[in-house]
Amino acid sequence: MMFxxxxxxxxxxxxxxVPGKTGNLSNNELVMELREAAKDHFGRISFVYIDGIExxxxxxxxxxxxxxERLPALALNTKDGKKLPFPxxxxxxxxxxxxxxxxYLSGRMNNEDDAQExxxxxxMATNFNRKNQAQRQERKKPPEEKTGISEQWxxxxxxxxxxxxxxxxxxxxxxxxxVVLFTSKECESCSHMTPYYKRLGRRFAELxxxxxxxGGGNVTVGVMDLADDTPPLGYAxxxxxxxxxxxxxxxxxxxxxxxxxxxxxxVRPMMEWVAQHxxxxxxxxxxxxxxxxxxxxxxxxxxxxxxxxxxxxAEEEAAMEEEQRRLEEFRRQKKKARVEEEEENPHHHExxxxxxxxxxxxxxxxxxxxxxxxxxxxxxxxxxxxVASLDDNNEDGDGYSDYYEYDEL
Length: 409
Known about the structure:
Glutaredoxin; 4-stranded mixed β-sheet; disordered C terminus; endoplasmic reticulum; transmembrane helix
């Protein structure tokens, strides 16, 4: 799958030309190279291209992090669930794409490390095709004072900012248990977890400063923003679930299988989870009840959360009301237009059958006699007996007439 910058362009799927540029390269040139490579793998690999800005979540799902600055980008998504990003050091042309696919199909490339090894060998080849070398911005590097673990703990916030540059120094420290929250600026759920995770970092920092506070164990609490950076080679496979993702790298056990937190986002359960899987021997003391400062902090967090929920609810209700108003206005305008059209083109219905005699509400009254076997008496002769006179002739003496008046409409 190829990710391009297609913003502001109109792509006709039936046309051969793809307008616009991604970085310093022509979109049409990149797509042509992709199509040429697709001819050699017809029926085995599907080749597609999409807008990397609009589908940034798809890029992250395939292990491509850094957003728009990393475009153009490619990745192979296999049917057995593997995500293999195309090495950024390679140019994007038919030859490199074919080599990338061939190494996977032959079984020589099964992970990102294999892909990087393939890229190194390709770059050393004498006949290497360097067409379409993308010029991407260098990944942001943290300031020097944030590269060391000792400097990090001197900061006011005990949660360490982890990047690809200091990942090995901090996360892979064999003497410390390291908890890492993988998050993103674009993740709304991550923002809800942030206050609890910061509290987790402060609590572990306080206990570590106390003598015997963690029973001799050592814990580092860190966070990595995947919108700006990505784990180094060999650890990209840790990202197997939706964000936010909390992972523990125990002391002296930094490799797979990784340990993921799946409980509620509260301080106490997370601390107990760290102690349970600790490699440095973390032992939690008897945790006291919240003091006054902690209670106020908790109330503030609850208040902020409730305000956020109320704001979201109000926005949703306002949106529904606006949609209802627009619908009513649409109906009113439609009705008004229909009335105006009828006034401009009135329908003239001429009465049919002019000259014919019309009879409205004409009633033929027929008198039936129950005792006479249903003989009819037409009212044309004017001798229609009344109900009272018929009652007088009632032979049964039951007070009811043996005649019934029937209106034939």
